[in-house]
What does this fold into?
Amino acid sequence: MIPIRLALRNFMCYREAELSFEGLHVACLCGDNGNGKFGDMFPQRWIPSNLGILAEGFTVENKLMNPTYKIVRPKVEEHYSELLDFLYTSESKSVLNNRNREAMKQLLSK
It folds into this structure.
């Protein structure tokens, strides 16, 4: 059996979400992991509660990395200060928020 659609209801920050597998060849979907010491805590314990998608990566050209490819934290904090502040709001708890959608549109249009 190959699933076409998966509906999520009241899963973490998603009240109602639907994943479409149309056009994909999915062979296996696994159930919950109830094994181990922290089995009953997954995924809440291991998955970040907020996620921000960056429309632009860290590069030497935009000065977010130095020539030895180390991240320049003060520059990153300054450049993404608005996004970092947004990640502390309740709206950012949904991965499907408007900011992430706009960032994905920018990334996919390149």
